[in-house]
């Protein structure tokens, strides 16, 4: 631990050549990230205000876009903090405390923590909608977003409020927590960064393998034949029935089904990229800081390199959003003039359960006008051909009419008598 006047030893006056070159790299990447994230934020805000010109439904109805918007806002603050590098270069020194040093330390703290927590929030949202399959109400969602920002603001301001000395001073190649506040560094910053990193990775990996498991099951059912005999020996009458369902997968249907599987897996890989990108870009600095707390100080040149990686978080998230935006927006909001159908909010999955069939659909991220539904159980792939013959025989005439009248509409639509459909072919 540094002595009480440790801030004197962290000042860099003049700047070493390696730090100066590193600050140039951090500043350039910070400017690019700031401009790209700010431009995308303005674009999304404009489309949200004038959504009627472009979409069938308001953009704020898509919860995943709202979360990505907040992630970009966090990335913008983090990137903006590294633009201060040009100020230190112009001064040829990094000294504190000062107003510029306080501003840089504040932006790094709130930007880093908030970006990590919103990456975790996107992971939790994906897991709840796709695996647990419970929709998140607008009230709970809005409260959660506000709570994340309130928590990040608390973690940022509690240190300067309670500190009796200068809290944000030079720390490596930028201003951050004073070295005398090692506990604050751990409990106000690194603890939540590691929770966000580990939690997001764990959730996304589990979602990825969940999708792979469902898709592996469904791929075995492209060409199948299922025959079921049902004997009913209870109630006021006895009867028996036979249902024969033959599912054919022609070459074009197989190709369509394979393409649908590939689309779902590509979407799953996009999900995994978010946490992996965040971890890869932020873990080096977090590891270096923890190493410093353990008494193993990394070389000074390490911090500009790690800072450049951190500053690029905004660029990476912008690229990821632009990569998935078309499918995300068209599939969930409905583009004017498109045939995307009814709205699908978020990227949550829908698992339709029934006594005879299951299907999994990943909403939100899909191509325009497409229905990415992956069958699980005894459903046929989309665009496949089904031949259904169903015969029901009862031994008691008294209850026959009442039993048929009590049959649900959905079951009636599935039950086709032999004389109604004599081995007819119905395309899905």
Automatic annotation (TrEMBL):
It is found in: Membrane. InterPro entries: GPR1/2/3_C (IPR022596). Its main location: membrane. It comes from the Eukaryota. One of its GO terms (cellular component) is plasma membrane. The chain crosses the membrane at residues 23-46, 67-88, 108-128, 140-162, 190-211, 270-288, 300-322. The keyword Transmembrane helix applies. This is G protein-coupled receptor GPR1/2/3 C-terminal domain-containing protein. It comes from Rhynchosporium secalis (Barley scald fungus).
């Amino acid at each position: 631990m540094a002595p009480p006047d440790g801030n004197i030893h962290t000042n860099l006056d003049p700047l070493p050549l390696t730090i100066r070159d590193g600050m140039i790299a951090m500043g350039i990447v910070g400017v690019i990230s700031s401009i790209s994230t700010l431009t995308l934020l303005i674009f999304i805000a404009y489309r949200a205000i004038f959504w009627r010109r472009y979409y069938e439904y308001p953009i704020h109805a898509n919860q995943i876009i709202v979360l990505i918007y907040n992630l970009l806002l966090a990335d913008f603050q983090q990137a903006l903090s590294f633009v201060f590098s040009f100020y230190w270069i112009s001064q040829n020194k990094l000294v504190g405390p000062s107003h510029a040093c306080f501003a840089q330390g504040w932006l790094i703290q709130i930007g880093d923590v908030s970006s990590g927590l919103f990456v975790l929030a996107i992971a939790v949202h994906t897991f709840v909608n796709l695996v647990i399959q419970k929709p998140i109400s607008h009230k709970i969602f809005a409260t959660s977003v506000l709570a994340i920002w309130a928590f990040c603001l608390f973690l940022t301001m509690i240190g300067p409020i309670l500190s009796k000395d200068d809290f944000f001073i030079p720390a490596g190649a930028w201003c951050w927590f004073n070295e005398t506040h090692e506990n604050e560094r751990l409990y106000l910053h690194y603890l939540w960064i590691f929770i966000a990193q580990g939690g997001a990775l764990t959730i996304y990996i589990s979602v990825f393998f969940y999708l792979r498991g469902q898709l592996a099951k469904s791929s075995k059912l492209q060409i199948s034949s299922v025959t079921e005999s049902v004997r009913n020996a209870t109630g006021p009458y006895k009867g028996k029935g036979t249902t024969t369902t033959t599912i054919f997968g022609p070459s074009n249907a197989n190709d369509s089904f394979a393409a649908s599987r590939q689309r779902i897996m590509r979407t799953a890989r996009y999900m995994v990229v978010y946490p992996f990108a965040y971890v890869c870009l932020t873990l080096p600095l977090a590891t270096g800081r923890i190493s410093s707390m353990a008494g193993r100080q990394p070389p000074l040149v390490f911090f500009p390199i790690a800072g450049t990686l951190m500053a690029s978080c905004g660029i990476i998230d912008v690229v990821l959003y632009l990569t998935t935006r078309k499918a995300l927006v068209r599939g969930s909001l409905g583009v004017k003039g498109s045939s995307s159908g009814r709205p699908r909010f978020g990227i949550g999955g829908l698992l339709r359960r029934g006594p005879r069939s299951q299907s999994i659909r990943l909403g939100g991220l899909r191509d325009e006008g497409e229905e990415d539904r992956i069958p699980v159980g005894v459903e046929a792939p989309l665009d496949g051909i089904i031949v259904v013959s169903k015969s029901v025989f009862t031994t008691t005439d008294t209850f026959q009419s009442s039993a048929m009248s009590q049959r649900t509409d959905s079951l009636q639509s599935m039950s086709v008598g032999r004389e109604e459909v004599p081995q007819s072919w119905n395309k899905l």
